[in-house]
Fold this sequence. Notes:
Blueprint: H1 2-38, E1 40-44, E2 50-53, E3 62-66, E4 71-73, E5 83-88, E6 97-105, E7 108-113, E8 118-122
Amino acid sequence: MRIAVAAAVAFGAFTATAASASADSRSAAASVSTGAAQEWGGGWNNYGDTSVREKASTGARKVGTLKRGKKIKCWVAGCSGTHNGGTYRCSSSSPKEKDWHAVRWNGKKAWVASRCMEWGRVA
């Protein structure tokens, strides 16, 4: 009889733990997806205006200008890295760079020079 009671208690503890773990994982998944919906990667430039281009090259058509202090969202939520494109300089004294970020400009994919901006989360 003691074995049956012990097994029932152990099984009850197992199902309670499993239910609790399942609830915790659903809660964690909800907070992750909620956070992802509220946060978006993007960039801003506190130094001056930045050209927004059709392709990742200074020779590509300019589709707009991101004014100093304004924010722009990345093409994808996580700002998944840079693209190796045409070379540029952020200023006349800076080294040549060739990393570009894909961004959203008027609902379309466009490109900005990565090293000329700050990157992080934007609202």
